[in-house]
Amino acid sequence: MTKAASARARPRKQPSDRNANGAAHPFDFFDRLVWLDGRPLMSTIEPYRQKILNDVLFTFDPDGRPRYNLTLCGRAKRIARRPI
Question: Domain extents for the chain?
Answer without folding.
Answer: 1-11+20-69
